Amino acid sequence: MYKVGENFDKLNLIDFRLTIRFYNPSFENITVVEAFDLVIDEFGKQDMMVLVDNHVSDPKWCCDGNDGNGFFGDKDFDPKEWLEGLSNVVNRVKGKPQVVAIGLRNELRGPNQNQQNWHKYMSQGATTVHNANPNVLVFVSGLSYDTDLSFLKTNPLNTSIGNKLVYEVHSYAWSSGPRSDWIEKPLNQKCANVMNGLNDKAGFLMSGSNPSALVMSEFGMNMEILDNMNQRFMSCMMVYLVGNDLDWALWAAQGAYYVRKNETRVSETFGLWNIYFRSLRYAEFPQRFQLLHKKLLEPSSNSSKSYIIYHPLSGQCVRVSNNHKLELGDCDWPNKWNQEGQQIKLVENGACIEAISEGSQVKLSSDCKSKQSFWKKLSTSNLHLSILDRQGNYLCLERESPTSPKIVTKKCICVDDSLSCLDDPQSQWFQLVTTNV
């Protein structure tokens, strides 16, 4: 087995070998598998949990439908070898408490994929992992690049490993149609279709009399080109993840690759870190993702449920200022709300959200009988909170400007779901997020 340094030489990565020698000289003369062990051990020292994922069989950039790695029986995907590999890896990491889960296979795909063999081999894979280590979770991906688990509605996966199965789903801007749809089609309809599609293909697993665990184990956007398409896709994903309190994993953290498709020092434009791993590519990441880091629903809690009002475009939550007006702020201690009919009341004192006039900052009022306190969701996205003004026109909550925290009411954007309305409504997207913590 090649040692780390020899592998760098084999790939003509001499400068990288010198870097390893300078920063981690002990790595140069150990095997790749031993380096794998040391990395996992370091994760444990840093109190991080590890999901060991089986990505591809033939080590290469992933993924293509005809790359030989897509489905059981493909040129580089021998099921017997795969099962042996799972057993070997699980036994190798056994006893490392930081390893909490094993992913059976990433993004099954290609012309040979079929449900019959999916059931056969996923059941065998789950059993293999369980027999080797009954203490780890088993992550199971679906078909079509892990975007489709809908076949489980009529034919559940047959395993006997208890409640340790976790299904995973992936979603990108192109997963449900051309990327250009995010610009060329009405955004309220596009986002609603994406969320409905996610529910149909995977989200259904979380409901019913015997719900299953589901994780959005891969999603992301180009963090070098923060254009309208990427921003719109990400806002929609925020809505889905927060609304379902889903655990998630972002593709990707790394800023670059040693080698990718025979090219060296390749930038990962979807990477959170820049190419030198020194700063964030996307400076707004901590604010934009803050609510996604929080647990919103605790199944064992006896606390009553309430709402957080969330603004996905900014990643911020609605707060009440000292002068009783609504503004956006961090989500560390957001105000909690109840919805009673068409009224949205502050849990703390029962005061209602009331609109004043178009362009004015929204406030709290003790007069909950006012028509200016009757709020209604509009559009297919259900993300516009609106009131009828005295002239019978709908006004929607809106962030006053990208630099202002004030929440005002303005004429609603594209809420009639007209196919010709391509204006951007994200500033008016406000989501009532259920929580009991």
UniProtKB/TrEMBL annotation:
Residues 30-254 form the Glycoside hydrolase family domain. It comes from the Eukaryota. One of its GO terms (molecular function) is hydrolase activity, hydrolyzing O-glycosyl compounds. The keyword Metal-binding does not apply. GO terms for biological process: polysaccharide catabolic process. InterPro entries: GH (IPR017853), Glyco_hydro_5 (IPR001547), Ricin_B-like_lectins (IPR035992). Keywords: Glycosidase, Hydrolase. Belongs to the glycosyl hydrolase 5 (cellulase A) family. This is Glycoside hydrolase family 5 domain-containing protein.
